[in-house]
Amino acid sequence: MPATLEPLKAIKCSYEDCYQSFDTKEEMIRHKKYSEEHEYCSKCDLDCEDLDAYVLHKITAPLQHKKACRHCGDEFHTKAGLERHIALVR
User: Is 80 left (phi over 0), alpha (psi -120 to 50) or beta?
Assistant: First the structure.
């Protein structure tokens, strides 16, 4: 029995090299947020080209990423967590 192709859905992933498509924009955003193949900032709705661009974005966007380390881009849930991280890195 021949394989059948699934029909394309209305919303294509916004990453140029990704060929997945979705029924809704929310499904596409969820895909980008949790895919290991994409570096997506859900806070800013920004598609980053690679991990370096994603880290640089978090470092250079302090208003949106208040609890991100300005050296490595790691983001923390609390200010105390960020402060502990900075103290350990020094």
Answer: alpha
Residues 88, 57, single domain; the answer is yes
Q: Are 34 and 26 in contact (CB under 8 A)?
A: no
Q: Specify which residues 39 forms β-bridges with.
A: 48
pLDDT tens for each residue of 26-70: 999 999 999 999 999 999 999 999 999 999 999 999 999 999 999
Q: What is the DSSP letter of 23?
A: S
Q: What is the pLDDT of residue 4?
A: 62
The boundaries of the domain holding residue 14 are 9-47
> Are 71 and 87 in a shared domain?
yes
Alpha-carbon distance values, 56 to 21, 38, 47, 62 (Å): 28, 15, 13, 11
